[in-house]
Structures are given as C-alpha cells and as structure tokens.
Design brief:
Layout lengths: L4 H4 L2 H6 L2 H11 L6 H8 L4 H18 L2 E5 L1 E4 L28 H14 L3 E4 L11 H12 L4 E4 L2 H11 L3 H11 L1 E3 L10 H7 L6 H13 L4 E7 L5 H18 L2 E8 L6 H4 L9 H15 L10 H4 L1 H8 L5 E4 L6 H5 L9 H10 L3 E5 L5 E4 L30
Parallel strand pairs: 1-8, 1-9, 2-3, 3-4, 4-5, 6-7
Antiparallel strand pairs: 9-10
C-alpha cells in the first residue's frame, strides 16, 4: 500500500470532501471494486468533491500506467456516408441521391491508405455507412485490397453494426464473418455503435440499430477469434448518470470475461446538426465537468481491467482533453487525418492533430509523450517531432506531415 499523501488524501481534502464521496474514493484507493451506486455518487460530485475525484483518478492512472501519454498516427477513411438506418444522433449519413452523398471506389481507399503510410501512419481506421449498393463482401474486399499493397499497416475497422450488416447480407454467422476478416488481415475493430448499452436509451437513439445484446455478442465473438477492440460510450444526449454507471459496469464485465478491450473511449455527444437535438429530444451535449467526471470515474471503475483511458480531442477540443488527461486518462488518441463523422455533426475542433502538437501538449502537462501502435506497443518515447527549446519550429497542423521513419518497437 502506497503511503503517499495523495493515496491517503491530504488533510485539507479530508475536511472538505463529503463523507459519501470520501468513502468511495478511499474504497478505490484500497483496490476494492466500485459498483454502480458508488459511480452514481461520484457522478454527482461538485466543488471539492470533484477535485478530490480528479486527484484520486490521476493517482490511480499514475499507478496503473505511469507518466506516459500515448498517441497513434492514424488516418480515418470513412469510405461511404450512404446509409438508410436513420440514427437521429447522426449527421453523417446521406441517402444515395442527397447532396453530399459519396462512396469511394476501392482504388481510392487504397490510395488514401498508401498516403497515410507515407505520412508515417501505422494504422488506418475505416468505418462507413450501411450502403446497400456495396454488398456484404465490401468489408473483406477493403481489407484485402489494402493489405495487398501495405502488408505492415494495421487495419482498425468496422463497428459491430457493420459486422452485423455483413452477416445479414451474406446470411452467414457473425463468427464466420469475423474469421474471414481476420484472415484477410483485419487487425482490430472499433467498439463504436455502443452509444449507451442500456435498452431504454437505445430505444430512443437506435430503434433500427443493433441491440445491446447483439453488440455485446459481436464484441465477445471478435475477442474470441483474436480481434481486439476498443470500448466506447456516447454520453450527453437523452442519458443520465445511472445509465453511464450501468454501461461502465457492463464493459468491465465483458473485459473480465474476454480481456479483448485495448482502451475505453468516452465520446461526448456532438449535437449541433443532429435530428435528435433539433426535435428537442436531447440536451446540447455533455458539460465540461461531466466530461471530467466521465474520464475520472472510468479510471476508478475500469483501470484495473482496462488500463488505457483515451480522450477524444475531436469531441472535446485539445484544451479540455488536457484536463481529462489530468483526471485519469492516459491516451490522446490518434492524429486522425480526415475525420468526417464528428465534423458533420458540428464538431469544430479540426480533422488532424500533428504528432508535434500532441508532444507539445503532453510536455506542457509534465508528462512523457509516447507514440504507440494500435495495440499499445511503444514505438518511441519522449519528444521526437517537437523541440520545446525551439517551439517556433513546430509544423503547422495540416500544413505538412512528418516523413516516414523506420518503425522499431521501444523496449
């Protein structure tokens, strides 16, 4: 047991923090499980209670993953936005003949992947709308096409919803689809389409989408065939803290069974261009304090099972992401290049962050920048792209990309 002042809480916090919150925080520091009721207590924290939550989450982050803040160089390839599902929280989807509808040819996707590799990306992240004109084979065709020219690149692609769609179109079991994708070269899948894994919330958000049970089964099957995944939550719409607590508990249960989640990623609802908000059904996204609490509580509930808690700078902005990295999170996510889905919903924080900018922000927090792979192998630790002694030399975001360097795993 660490006897540092933080672990026992400082005397000032002992007097200022409420008894209910102190009890839960001390429980977490002792390594005991935080249950849903405990999480609800923490989601209600304000003032000194919230500051104490942040301190404890940051200390647990330090114990579990150290001082590194990791990031990955990746390019988003949203290969089509044609989709007829009708999710009211989505502003990305278009019907085939609507203005702005697009579908990339296979050759265009491959060219984007080749560009990403030349820029220094180790990963491409592919997701798209459910375009009925593409057929159920499109997913394996995309993987094979990219791997045929870039065998070393990691393909992180296709949400559980897309996997279900391929299964339905081909009338084949989900497990067969996943095995075929893995054999073609798929490296991992994004744990998106989770939204909130509570049926009463999903009924409002995703009536025509996969159920909680289907999402869980597809994720477990992916893990079983050897495809790791991220885990996500989308919060700040029609949900409440009790739903957040139930969602976190379910994610923890899955991880204890499969061990297949690489990270947990809270995704704040981007509301501006969505039908859900226009119809008066949703609030205008999470507040800053809700985002801080989400990352901090995730660390307390999940950190022993899922040590990597990622911030979504696209959803929150870089400065708010820094705050959450001081409240339990440890991963800055990806450079992204061409992020479309959040931008279409109204996000204004950009499509790309350079490795140099990540390093600048990480050093500003007194932490150690580290470039990683999709599965959290460390490629390089310490600043490589940003020189803190010559900050004026940092490349402008989007104006240039770093040249590809040899990739060697750090010890």
């Amino acid at each position: 047991m660490n006897n540092s002042p933080t672990l026992n809480l400082t005397h000032s916090f002992r007097f200022a923090v409420s008894t209910r919150v102190r009890r839960v925080l001390e429980k977490a520091l002792e390594g005991r499980e935080i249950d849903c009721q405990d999480a609800l207590t923490l989601f209600e924290a304000r003032g000194q209670d919230l500051l104490a939550l942040m301190v404890v989450a940051d200390e647990l982050r330090r114990e579990q993953v150290g001082e590194r803040v990791t990031f990955v160089q990746t390019r988003n390839i949203n290969f089509t936005n044609v989709c007829y599902t009708g999710c009211e929280f989505c502003a990305f989807a278009r019907h085939r003949n609507q203005p702005g509808a697009y579908t990339f040819e296979l050759e265009e996707v491959v060219e984007q992947a080749k560009e990403a590799w030349a820029w220094g990306c180790t990963e491409v992240c592919m997701q798209g709308g459910l375009n009925p004109l593409l057929g159920g084979d499109i997913y394996v065709e995309l993987v094979r096409a990219i791997k045929s020219v870039l065998p070393q690149i990691h393909i992180h692609a296709f949400s559980p919803f897309e996997i279900q769609y391929a299964s339905q179109l081909q009338r084949r079991p989900v497990e067969d689809i996943l095995w075929e994708l893995k054999e073609a070269g798929l490296g991992s899948i994004p744990g998106t389409a989770a939204e909130i894994l509570v049926p009463e919330v999903r009924q409002i958000l995703t009536k025509n989408k996969l159920s909680t049970e289907a999402w869980v089964e597809i994720i477990k099957t992916a893990h079983r065939v050897g495809l790791p995944s991220s885990a996500t939550i989308m919060y700040g719409h029609v949900d409440h803290p009790r739903h957040w607590a139930e969602h976190l508990a379910l994610i923890r249960d899955i991880q204890r069974e499969t061990g297949g989640f690489t990270e947990f990623v809270p995704l704040g609802f981007i509301y501006q261009n969505t039908q859900l908000y226009a119809k008066g059904l949703a609030r205008p996204g999470p507040t800053g304090m809700e985002s801080v609490k989400m990352h901090a509580v995730a660390r307390l509930m999940l950190g022993r099972n899922i040590p990597n808690i990622q911030v979504s700078w696209v959803k929150m902005g870089l400065q708010m992401a820094q705050m959450c990295l001081n409240a339990g999170a440890n991963d800055f996510g990806g450079t992204l290049h061409n992020e479309r889905i959040s931008r279409m919903a109204g996000a204004t924080t950009g499509q790309y962050v350079s490795p140099a900018e990540f390093e600048r922000l990480i050093l500003d927090m007194g932490r150690i920048p580290a470039e990683r792979t999709t599965t959290y192998d460390i490629l390089h630790e310490g600043p490589r792209y940003y020189n803190p002694f010559q900050p004026q030399t940092m490349p402008l975001d989007g104006s240039q990309h770093q040249a590809r360097a040899d990739i060697v795993l750090a010890p």
